[in-house]
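FAQ: What does a ligand-bound record look like?

Like this one, built around 4-fluoro-L-phenylalanine:
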Amino acid sequence: MESPREQWSGKLGFILAASGSAVGLGNLWKFPYITWNNEGGAFVLVYLLCIVAIGAPVMMSEILVGRRSRRSPVEAFKTLGHPRWSFVGWLGVIAGVVILAFYAVIAGWSLRSFVQCVGWSVDGYEAPPEAAFGAFLADGGTQVGLGALFLGATALVVARGVSGGIERATRILMPVLFAIMIYLVVNVMFLDGFVEALVFLFRPNFSGLSGHAVLEALGHAFFTLSLGMGGMLTYGSYLRRQDSIPRIAMTVAALDTLIALVACVIMFGIIFSVPSLRATMESARSTGEGVSTVGMLFVTLPNLFYTKMPGGAVVGPLFYVLVAFAALSSTISLLEVVVASVSERLSMARGRATVVASAVVFGLSCGCALSLGANEWASSVRLFGGLERLNTLVTGGKTGFLSIFDHVAANWLLPLGGLALTIYAGWVMPAADTQDELDGVGDDGEVRRGYVVWRICARFVAPAAIGWIVVQVLLGGDFS
Ligand code: PFF
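The answer part, i.e. the structure of the complex:
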């Protein structure tokens, strides 16, 4: 007989684990720099709209498919009577492996920054030479080692199961993360740039908004909410029957958005307090070059902590604990999708499935770790060799494993997975089932308005918007 499926201990367990999955490098690393490059205000507004009109309904769809089937992504659709839709689950597993492989490497950088900051706090700050970060990236052994450390920590948690591993870990990680965030933002409130950061974020200037920015906002909404790869589906499959999916999905989306905005306030508050830095960053934006993706988080900020911020010696190391914790609770969910699928599909014990999945991911993550300059081939490889047109279409012409993985996941796998999933929930699943899962009918027998709104979003708004992403990517757009 099958053993009963594991469950979260309650609503809070789910909310912490799911917001742990959602809050990650996407919030602390990606969102601030795309917001900066897209000139704040109006972009933030579009992003909020994407989260509400597309992100939240798609998240509800994923969770409801999970809870209805009580299976991992690769088995869920079969269990619900639609085996042909299992490709969505497989797409999710592939996305999980691909994202985890490069995400673990980037997450590893936070460990290096943490150690570096502790050193500065103890021995006094000494500005590193400009080339130091490049040299660190090109050090293959360190990159592989840090990525492996991150994967190892992730595997240890996932191997212990849903309530004993994931829930237990996120019950510690998330509250600590919130506390550190509050401490940081309170510190930033005393800086000159704090009010300006708020103005930058919340005063919309639509003249600076491009069509590409809308695409970027939409694409990021998927990544940041961990949608389109079965993560929320898997977590939803452990959700208790009595918990309200709309309410918890909305809470998770709100928490994720709040943290992304607070991360911007922290970073921009510090940056705006240094006029020369601000000028450099503004000129990078206006020349279209944009601020460097990693530069802001791993080079500029540590420097500012120690040169411009009172109490920086405490704030610096804490900040990188925050980044590492946020990343860890996300990698846990990525690995869980793969482990749940492998163990269910091959009837393998969780521990063994974790070892198998981590080994595969580790192999790929070595490719990513060595693609930042350590190995010539890994850094310059193209997915389709000399087939230029295919390279441009599928990978945006990117070279090197890390960039290719990032591009393929953000531009293809997540949007396609999300598109298929919402079409499934909106059009293929019987309305009675979705109503049942989303508390769609009130005690008076009337269909609730909230359910009707979800259904319109799931059937029309989200598929149209995601379909638009796919068309744009086919036409050469890129928002990774
Ligand atoms: N949501 C995570 C972030 O914003 O960093 C990234 C992510 C995690 C994407 C888990 C997808 C996923 F399944």
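Follow-up question: can I read anything off the structure? Yes, for example: The chain has a mean pLDDT of 92.
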